[in-house]
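Posted in: Structural Biology > Protein-Ligand Complexes

Title: Requesting predicted complex, zinc ion in pocket

I'd be grateful if someone could produce the 3D structure tokens for the following input. Sequence and ligand are given below.
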Amino acid sequence: MGVLLFTGGTVVTPDGSFGADVLIEDEKIVAIGAEISADGVETVDASGKFIMPGFVDAHTHMDMPFGGTVTADDWETGTAAAVAGGTTTIVDFALQDEGGTLAEAVEAWTEKARNKALTDYGFHVAITDLRDDTKAELSSLADKGVASVKIFMTYKGTPLYTKDDDLFEALQLSKEASVLVLVHAENGDVIQKLIEQALVRGDTAPRFHALTRPPEVEAEATGRAIRLAQVAGAPILVVHVSCAPALEEIHRAHERGQMVYAETCPQYFAFSYQDLAREGFEGAKYVCSPPLRDESNREPLWNGLKVGDLQIFGSDHCSFNYKAQKELGIDDFSKIPNGLPGVEERAMALWTLGVREGKISENQFVALLSTNQTRIYGMYPRKGALVPGADADIVLWDPEISITATVENRHGNVDYTPYEGMTFKGGPASVYMRGTLIYKDGEIMGEHGSGRFIKRSFVPPSMKSALV
Ligand SMILES: [Zn+2]
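-- Reply #1 --
Done. Output follows.
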């Protein structure tokens, strides 16, 4: 640490790009402007690079139990992968145990992160057991710096599944508690029925994961959740929007002025149903929920990002090994653990497929990966902004870097990468977290345990200011 001056780079914010020097002292940004001079500074040559606020990924699942197993990445390997992708803050899902409290979930996740996290971090609490004492506990979350909870409308037959009455009450209570409700919107009852019918027919291959979760069940649940939020008078955030019909529900809500935030993820742009339908059991590598869709959904999703119906691009990083984990479902697709790695590839995929292809601007890129995340999730302007006083979380983005993904050059702990052989053009050259260089040219330099818990507080940004 100390005093660093970034010179010759192009500063990128959601509002515009401009040539400027950036001066940081210890953990904070102190000045941005033309030709800054200061005594005793170490100069960092940023010419040819974009200077961006550290990326924020508010959708990760590190060291999380699911379907009788635990995600392949813990906080050590998962945050290493994050850093290699330019991410300096994650918000992870702390799961309430059945019979457990929300506070215990936060404590358990604090332990998982301790001595391991390379990035700063926060938690959402995933509510799995909405008892009376859990409802009473909701109001204490804001004091703990936990500004969001998650409700699952799917995974029927597991503790995650939540019925409408509980979802509705959570929305009502969250509004009073200044907490944002995130929803995984897929119709769990209908999916369960379709899965049972498929298995009776003997349809057990990975592709039936998608065929038993058609876009309409996502759209229906999305519309239902949004309408319940409308009745409760509460804002809501729909995570991992995968398809045009679900996006239409969000667009309609925006047309009537409802406060609905929404996220989409790299896998819905980089892959499609064809990957799930690969030979043999290969498709298991691409099982996530909502499932990968037909390519016809891509253009509408790009448009959603462009016009601001989708404000957030999160990874939903939820990694399972192919061997022994994905293989749990070799005879039954419904037993394949759901999730893909993506925390490392998120920004590079968005740049390669989005900015380079002219779908979105570099300014929208920064908004989707950083600024909108911190506004909506309650960390702005400490995070997500290049302004004096903000944490000196900085990505020097090199549009000329070319990286072809292989399982060997990934920084996480998964035995495959769904991105195998895909070439990304544009990536982080170096990454600073609170003034410390934590990544450079493919190498992690940060110290495990240096990441800190970031207290968040939810103040709903107006739809206009959250728009890209
Ligand atoms: Zn998720």
